[in-house]
Design goal:
The protein has 498 residues and is mostly helical. The protein is 82% helix and 0% strand. The protein folds into 2 domains: 1-112, no CATH class; 129-498, no CATH class. The protein has 16 helices and no strands. Helix 5 (115-128) packs parallel to helix 10 (334-369) and helix 13 (403-429) packs antiparallel against helix 14. It is elongated and about 115 Å long.
């Protein structure tokens, strides 16, 4: 396929984002340039596919020339969007430069793959082969097709787990930062509430003693009255202020953490488990189906495989696949990658015509010579089908995302707030005014203790649930569990056994 839908949408979205910053005369230029460029680009890509799939023996130069022509088309369109604007804005120039540079990267890196040369070399191998067996070709073709279809499922499942883990890591990091910033916000609000308590005591003191300042020369009855009034007033203040304090500072963050632990991490575990089972099902089908078919096939073809260059032809095709994969991965935007992925597959589809001719010739040879394929399976063949070693990069990438670590940081932050930060804030700010009589200090201390106990009780319930759920998720998605789940050792051993 040669569609450019993703790239067009990407540039359209990018243009929509900056449209308000463009000059009036600049606004229509990019849509016009894209309308001219992308149909031409599609035709150039179709031409390249025609060269790859054509039967002419030498087309490397034609392939390179077509890419050069496409680059010239690009330079005259996306490379000159605002050339008629006398004094284009910086925003417009940035848009033009980015779009043009990205598209040049597309064609320049495609040219660097030397697909035309690889295609010509593959056709040379087709010409060199003389005989193949139709029956054996069918078996081998089925083996490759079935294996690759299963590998794609496994790749998609692994990628889906990776996307789920990415989301979990990002959310854990965000919430960890929020929890780490909680003590400072909590202390600020606590100081306000503390100040309110001190002011309430001061007001009662003035009301019942007539003095603005604390002193020891106050009558016992007046002091008793102030203390009793302070107790009831502070009790009411705790009941009124603590919920407000929690709502304003801690509740939203802890509720977010609790929601993440109870729901999002549960969804992450479920989603990962579902995809891991899909992956393991593919491995089982490879082990019980592909590996068995491969074993039967190789026993009939060993002698011929040692004496002809069919493996070399397959190697060229595989190198082209790998080169196209690297090309797609190296492109600078998601839109380019998405459309390039379709084009890459179309290239492989076009070249697969020649590979099929090689396979047909190979079948005819086996039909007449009855070659036998004895001996141990080479590690490269095991790897080609089992992809045990190459899959390590998928494992490393997935485990390297650090979900287990970030969940530990997340748990630590919530536990620290409960076990240390709350107490520290109270201890650092619990001192009553020095001049306050001892009886009032006692009432004030009870006020602060009641406030602390209410806050700790509220926070403890949420933190405990957060910690438990996060620990369960961390254990279920630990590096050890992920590597065990993605193991391809059994499949590799079965294939290696022949």
């Amino acid at each position: 396929m040669t569609t450019q839908d993703r790239r067009i949408r990407e540039l359209q979205d990018r243009h929509t984002t900056i449209q308000g910053k463009l000059l009036a005369e600049e606004v229509p230029r990019a849509p016009q340039a894209m309308a001219a460029y992308f149909p031409a680009k599609v035709e150039h890509l179709k031409g390249l596919l025609g060269i790859l799939g054509g039967s002419e023996e030498s087309r490397a130069k034609g392939f390179a020339d077509r890419i050069a022509e496409a680059t010239r088309t690009l330079d005259g369109s996306l490379g000159a969007i605002y050339r008629d604007v006398r004094d284009p804005s910086l925003t417009a120039l940035v848009f033009e430069t980015q779009a043009h540079t990205e598209e040049r990267r597309y064609f320049e890196s495609l040219a660097a793959l030397k697909l035309g040369e690889m295609r010509d070399e593959l056709l040379g191998k087709v010409a060199a082969l003389k005989t193949f067996t139709d029956g054996l070709q069918r078996k081998w073709d089925e083996t490759l097709v079935n294996n690759q279809s299963l590998v794609r499922v496994e790749q998609e499942a692994t990628a889906e787990i990776g996307r789920a883990v990415d989301a979990g890591v990002e959310q854990a990091k965000r919430l960890t930062v929020a929890l780490q910033g909680l003590p400072a916000k909590f202390e600020d609000r606590f100081k306000d509430v503390k100040k309110a308590g001190e002011q309430a005591i001061a007001d009662l003191w003035k009301l019942h003693t007539g003095d603005d300042r604390y002193h020891e020369a106050v009558g016992k009855e007046a002091l008793y009255l102030v203390v009793e009034k302070a107790k009831s007033t502070l009790t009411a203040l705790v009941a009124a202020q603590v919920p407000v304090m929690l709502d304003g500072v801690t509740k939203s963050q802890l509720e977010s953490a609790k929601l993440f632990a109870e729901q999002e991490l549960a969804m992450l575990r479920s989603r990962s488990a579902e995809q891991l089972e899909k992956y393991r099902q593919g491995i089982r089908q490879q082990t019980q189906g592909v590996a068995v078919l491969f074993s039967v096939t190789r026993k009939d073809t060993e002698e011929f495989a040692r004496q002809n260059d069919f493996e070399a032809g397959k190697k060229i095709y595989q190198e082209m696949r790998e080169a196209l994969d690297r090309w797609v991965a190296g492109l600078p935007s998601d839109g380019l990658k998405g459309d390039a992925g379709e084009f890459a597959q179309a290239c492989l589809d076009a070249v697969s015509i020649h590979l099929k001719r090689m396979e047909e010739t190979y079948n005819d040879f086996v039909s007449r010579n009855r070659a036998r394929f004895y001996g141990p399976v080479g590690p490269e063949i095991t790897e080609q089908l089992a992809q045990k070693e190459s899959w390590r990069s998928h494992e490393d990438t997935l485990c390297g995302k650090g979900l287990e670590t970030h969940l530990r940081y997340f748990r630590d932050a919530s536990r620290q707030f409960l076990d240390y930060d709350i107490q520290y804030v109270f201890e650092r700010n619990a001192r009553a005014p020095d001049a306050m009589p001892a009886e009032l200090k006692q009432a004030y201390s009870v006020y602060l203790s009641a406030m602390r106990d209410m806050i700790v009780a509220e926070v403890k319930a949420k933190v405990g649930e957060v910690d438990r759920k996060a620990e369960e998720a961390a254990n279920a998605l630990s590096e050890q569990k992920l590597r065990e789940g993605l193991s391809r050792s059994e499949l590799a051993a079965r294939i290696a056994a022949g």
